[in-house]
Amino acid sequence: MPGKLKVRVVSGRNLPVMDRSSERADAFVELKFANVTLKTDVYRKSLNPQWNSEWFKFEVDDEELQDEPLQIRIMDYDTYSAHDSIGKLYIDLNPLLWKDGVTGISGWFPIYDTMHGIRGEINVVIRVELFTDANKYRESSCGVKFFRSSCVPHVYTAAAVYGFVEELVVNDDPEYQWIDKIRTPRSSNEARQRLFSQLS
C-alpha cells in the first residue's frame, strides 16, 4: 500500500552550546527516510531554535514504512569546516500504519548523541497517509500485528510463528564488521543504534 510520509519541524529547546564565541548554536535539521534526505534552514545563534518549517514530504511504500525508521538528525552549521552533529533520533512509524488507528504523532522528543547522551529536545509533527492499493491482486501487510510474547493473547489465533536466526543477527551487527576499524566511535555507535531500532 503506497503512501505519503509528512514531517514538519517546529522547534528545538535546550540545545548544547556549539559555538564558544557566541555561546550559541547554528542549528538545522536533516530528515532521512529510506534513501531521501531533506533539510531545514539554518536557525542562527540560538539554543532554542524556531524552524516552523513547511511540510517535508516523502513518497513511500508500505515495506519502507514498516522496515525503515524516520531519522531526524540535528546539526550545527559550520561555514569553513564539516558540520557538527548535535544528536539524532529514530522514530518507528509502525504505530501509524493501523487502518483504524491514529495517523499522526507530535510533540517533544529527546535528542540523543551516542557520545554525550541527551542534548536537548525537538518538537516535530509526523503524519502518514496511506493510499488504497493500486493493484487489486496485491494485498498490503499494513495492519498485520506482531507480538513478542510467550503465548498468543486469547482474542487472537496464530497464523505463523517466526524467530530470529542468531547467526544472521551476529553477522548484521556492526561490531563484527571490519569497517569499525576505520570509522569513528560515533559512527559505529549510530550504526548499532539503527540496527537495534530495526531489530526491535
Automatic annotation (TrEMBL):
Regions that span the bilayer: none
Domain (C2): residue spans on this chain: 1-109
Annotated SMART domains: C2
Family matches, as Pfam families: C2 (PF00168), YbjQ_2 (PF23025)
Protein name: C2 domain-containing protein 5-like
